[in-house]
UniProtKB/TrEMBL annotation:
<feature type="domain" description="C-type lectin">
    <location>
        <begin position="218"/>
        <end position="340"/>
    </location>
</feature>
<dbReference type="InterPro" id="IPR016187">
    <property type="entry name" value="CTDL_fold"/>
</dbReference>
<keyword id="KW-0430">Lectin</keyword>
<keyword id="KW-0964">Secreted</keyword>
<dbReference type="InterPro" id="IPR016186">
    <property type="entry name" value="C-type_lectin-like/link_sf"/>
</dbReference>
<keyword id="KW-1015">Disulfide bond</keyword>
<dbReference type="InterPro" id="IPR001304">
    <property type="entry name" value="C-type_lectin-like"/>
</dbReference>
<dbReference type="Pfam" id="PF00059">
    <property type="entry name" value="Lectin_C"/>
</dbReference>
<keyword id="KW-0732">Signal</keyword>
<feature type="region of interest" description="Disordered">
    <location>
        <begin position="96"/>
        <end position="130"/>
    </location>
</feature>
<dbReference type="GO" id="GO:0030246">
    <property type="term" value="F:carbohydrate binding"/>
</dbReference>
<dbReference type="GO" id="GO:0005576">
    <property type="term" value="C:extracellular region"/>
</dbReference>
<dbReference type="InterPro" id="IPR018378">
    <property type="entry name" value="C-type_lectin_CS"/>
</dbReference>
<feature type="signal peptide">
    <location>
        <begin position="1"/>
        <end position="21"/>
    </location>
</feature>
<protein>
    <submittedName>
        <fullName>C-type lectin domain family 11 member A</fullName>
    </submittedName>
</protein>
<dbReference type="InterPro" id="IPR051663">
    <property type="entry name" value="CLec_Tetranectin-domain"/>
</dbReference>
<feature type="compositionally biased region" description="Acidic residues">
    <location>
        <begin position="103"/>
        <end position="120"/>
    </location>
</feature>
Amino acid sequence: MLLEEVFLAALCMSLVPSTLTQEEAAAEPLGLGNITESVVIIEKRGDTPDVIIDTYLRKIFLGNEEVTVSPPDDPHILPKTDAPQIHHVTTVSILQNGNSNEQDIENEEEEEEEIEEEDDTLKGKVPTTATQPSTTAFLDDNFNYFMSRLSAIESAIHRLNVQFFGLDVKVNQMSQSLSKIRTKLADVEDNIATVSELNLRNQRQIGQIEGCFKGRRLLRKCYLIFQHFENYETAQKLCHSRGGNLAMPIDEQEYAALAKYIHDSFYPFNWHIWIGINDLHTEGMYQYENGHRVSFFNWYKDHMIVQPNGKTLENCISVTSIDGKWWDHDCARRMFYVCEY
C-alpha cells in the first residue's frame, strides 16, 4: 500500500507540471515549503508515515479543501494519557524527476524502525512517569497528620489539667470538711466522756439512794444484800458501779449490826455472803477494799475446823448468815454479796 502511494505521487509529479503553483499553494498552509526542493518536513503528534503521505496527496489533488482523515488502527499510536507527548519530525523526500524507488523504500523502513524504537521507549517510560508518586505531597500529608495528632494530644492534656485542677479543688474542700468533722468528733467525744462521767455519778448516787432505801441504815452507813451469785472481783465491781463497795465493818459493833441484818434476810437458811476483806496482796495480812488493815476477826472454829485454813488457795472472806462467822474461800467461787454505801 505504501509503495503504491509513493509511485502514484512520483507519476503525478512528472505528468502534471502545470499544477506546481497550486501544489505549492496547497503546501504552504501545512508549512511544507517549496515542493521543487524535494524535501518536505511535516510535524505531526503521533501520526505515522501512512497518515502523513495520505494527507499530503489529498491536499495536492483536492487543493485547500479541508479533509478529515480518520486515523488508521495502528499499534504504534499511543493511548491518550496525562504523560508528556513527544513530537516526531518525519522527513519525506519526494523526487520530482523520478529518483530511485529503492532509496524511498529504505528511508521509509528506517523511519519505521526509528518510530518503533521511540514507541518502545515511550511504552517503558510512560507507566513509570504516570505511577511515580509525589514525594513532596507525601511528606506534606505526613507532616499535616502529625501536626493534627499533636494538636489533639495537646487538647487532651489541657482537658486533663483542667480535670486535675477540679479534683485538686475538691480534695482540698474534702480535707477542710474532714478537719471540721474531726474537730466536731473530738467535741462529741468530750461531750460523751462528760456525759458518761455524769452517768456514773448518777448511777452511784442512785445506788446509794437505793442502798439506803432498800437496804438497812446502820449508824453512818447503808447496807444492801444482792441475792445473785458472783465471784469476789465481780461483786466488788458491781458495788463500786453503784457508788459503794463490798461491806467493810470497821469495828465489832458495826459488824454486829451487819451480821444481824444478814441473819434476818436469810433466816432460817444458811448462806455464805461476800464481804470486803481479803489477803490477796500478802498472805495472812487481811485488808479492807480501801487498803486499811482489819483490826478485829470473827473466824469460825470447832473441834474439827479452824479458819482460816486455805492459805494461798483461799484469800477472800465470806460470812455465814446463820451465825455471822468468817470463812476464807477461793475468790473465784460464786456466792451472794453485800454492799455498803
